[in-house]
Structures are given as structure tokens and as C-alpha cells.
Target: LacI family transcriptional regulator
Amino acid sequence: MANIHDIAKMAGVSVTTVSRVLNNHKYVSDDKRATVLKIMDEMNYTPNKNAIDLIRGETRMIGLIIPYNNNQCFDQILNGVLHKAVEKDYTVTVLPSQYNKAKELECLSKLKNKLLDGIIIASRANDWEAILPYTAYGSVVTCEFTPHPSIGCSYIDRYASYVDAFQLLKDKGHVDVTFTTARGLESMSTRQLIAAYKEVFGTFQSDVYVTGCSCLDDGLIAAKTFLNRPNRPTAIFANGDEVAGGMYLYAQSMGLKVPDDLAIIGQENQPIGVGLGISSVNHQLFQVGEQACDLIIHKSNQKIKIPYQMIQRTST
Model:
């Protein structure tokens, strides 16, 4: 099988010229490029990608650490990353972590082994102190704010969005308000939700929220928990539009009217929310993913804040 030296000899050019052709380098004359490509075609030459990456100093591959897929939040981030990567001719490797700290660090070690140019962290299990050493081997960008100068971030102000959602409900006269989360107190989002609730309502009891919600069925179960209490809430802030959709359907099954008997706010502006007229906090996670990918491509440590949107529909 022909190698790069054979191609150079047959084309009457240097190995450097062949390397430049393989890397689409602009400083190669048209006639030499045509000759090299013709020889490659005749010899059925397949370049060694690892060798090209070594010459070029980059793989044009980006890793995306996500806890799991089939989740509306992480799917939107993934779609944003993929959209930007295809536009810029990069490849994306999805690295599911399941919030396992060891697995997460194993993914980051791919930077040290030069298998990826950079890694985007959609959501993390490790502390920043465990992640920081890997920035010495490649770009690391996160989808939450971090003050560390060596890590770029594309993020939204979730706390402000939660305050706005609770304040909207309070302004409409609701005081018995509950909410749902995906994870427990180990999650920054959950802690921010609790803090936002305290800020708006001035009080907090542990039974005002249910955790472990991520889909329509979870919303049905959470609504059953909330709405069968002696003093049922008059409003619920769900951690996703699918969860909110389950709540909407359960409320209807009880003969409750939305929003007269129960107001509902979801998150992420999903089709089910549009169809049922559910108000939603859109964190624009597609744009978060796009911007995170752009930061990786440009090896940037910038902190880019993506604005959220409050979308009011008939459910409030």
C-alpha cells in the first residue's frame, strides 16, 4: 500500500507538499495540487487520519459530556452543538456520563490523549477543582457560568429566570405554589429554584417540590401528589414542558380548569407546551449549545450569557 513518501516521489514533489494537499493548505499551486490528487486517486491512497491530525495539530473533533440523552434540555444543547459543528466542518463525539464522577473524568482524559480538540460540559458531577487540570490539554467549555478564567462558558441566568417565573405567579395572586425538579439538592438548578422560591414568597417548606421529574409520566405522578392534598396548590412551576404537559392532563382528568383552578408554567418552549397553551421559560438551550461549540472551535475562554425568554400563554 502506498504511503505519503511514495505519493511524493511519484508526483515529483516534497512530502511537505503532499501534507499541505491533504490539509487543504492554500500555499500549494493548482498544478501541483492536481498532480498529487491524481496520483492519490490512481494509487487508491487513503490518508492516515491520525497522521494528518498530528501534522495539523488538531483533530477537528469535539466531545460533548451529557449525563444522558432523551432529555429535552440536553437534547436541545446537543442539537445546537451539532448545528454549529456541521457548519464549521467539525465532528462531535457524545460522551454520556450519567453523572458519574469517574466516568466524567475519563471523558476529560481524552483531551490529555489528544483524541479531541476540546470538550463541552453540558452538566457536571465533579467540582471545578477536579476539572481544571484538564484545561492544560485542550479547550474546556461549560454550559453553566464559572468564574475560572481557563474555562469558557455559554450560559443562562437560571436563577433570574426562576425568580421571574415565581414572581409572575405571585403577581397573578398565587401564594400556594409548588414546583418540580429533575434532581435533588446535589443539583445547582434545584438549589437555585429553592433560593428563588424563598426570595419571592419569603418562606419554604420541603413539601413544596417534587424531584425526579423529566417526562410526561413524571408530570402526571407529580400532579397526582400535589393535587390530591387537602390544601392543593393553585399553581405549579414544572422543570420542563413535557412534565408540565403531564400535569395539565392530570388536572383535566380531575375536572380542574387551567388556569382558573390551576396555573402551570413549564420550561424550554417545547411543542407539547405550544399545543396545550402552556406558559414557558425558554432558556434558549439550542443557542447555548451553538455558542459553546463556537467557543471550543475558537479556543476561547469567554463568558457568553444567553438571554432567556418568558413566554406567557393561556395556562397562566
